[in-house]
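2024-03-11 09:14:02 DEBUG pipeline.ingest accepted 1 chain
2024-03-11 09:14:02 DEBUG pipeline.ingest length=399
2024-03-11 09:14:03 DEBUG pipeline.predict start
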Amino acid sequence: MTETTPQRTASRADAAPAHAAPARRVDDATVEQAVRRALELAALGPVTGGNPQVGCVLLDAEGRTVAEGWHHGAGTPHAEIDALSKLPVPHDARGLTAIVTLEPCNHTGRTGPCSEALIAAGVARVVYAVADPGANSSGGGARLREAGVEVDGGVLEAEAEFFLRRWLTAVRRGRPWVTVKWASTLDGRAAAADGTSQWITGPAARQRVHEQRSASDAILVGTGTVLADDPSLTARGDGGELLAAQPMPVVIGETAVPADAVLRSHPRGLIETGTRDLAAVLADLDARGLRRVYVEGGPTLASAIIAAGYADEYLVYLAPALLGGEKLALGDLGIRTIGEARRLRVTGVEQLGDDLLITAEPAEPAEPVDPAASAAPASTTAVSTTAASTTAVPSTEEN
């Protein structure tokens, strides 16, 4: 499990319990029930912070739950360690079966490997749903088998894959999961002829946007939006208060963010990319551990990300209004004929007050476009915290 959290680890010098085999093997139906319970536990953990949501259930030989745990986020123990700490005799799991949603990690970084902690605790069997895709953290199953622990992987794998798909996709590809959001009228306009856009949607839809910001590691805009709107890009509650989790604001482009911009007082700080090279930006965000990115930068940035094949998810807010005119929610996507249309699969439709929220994903994952073949200008690929962007876009509705 790839996490950056402190935890108890056992060295080979520890007095480790023996690996007593369970009196009988827990049956498959009970194991599957425990995996589903572990997924419920995993969902209690935070979606942001770079770490996966992981749950763990410890069963005795009769299939009864002895302890449960989950990863509570950065700075807290891994799910396996959390569960082991809740045993009647903490970290003494002799003869127990550990059910985990993600393969236990097998690396030492800022934390020790969960595989070694399970071995030291005397766990007899480990069942996990999804293999850890991390280049440095995978291999926990093999290490456990090497130590004489029975290991079964791939139990309810499809369910766990769906639950963890955003994190898994980000780790496997080496770039964040990218969600593109826009709000428009029914005729696809994001602003009126004079550029005004506040407010296209109603309070319920706008509050949902703040909740989605809070569930994202980073929020992307271009400097055109920053210069036009001076947005705060914070996640706020109904009363205007800051929510506990805030996205990191990322400004794409080459023009510096003004010294007096509201963004400069954002509680998470500010990343100014100094480039329009989307591949470089996403690679840098991944290196920073930012797995979920929320794009809210207006038609120019949204269109560039979609055209480049980086959009993994779409959140489209539709208001029952008509504006007409040229202020479209999306610009040119490089599509020449109907056969090249970006087909989507609708995964959800929700009514929020008078507005609709349509959630969709690509019907077929798009292959990222070679930047050299794109007409969009690319400047330096350096990404820092003190450079910035020029992306001329009409105003984003939320600020």
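2024-03-11 09:14:41 DEBUG pipeline.report The mean pLDDT is 86.
2024-03-11 09:14:41 DEBUG pipeline.predict end
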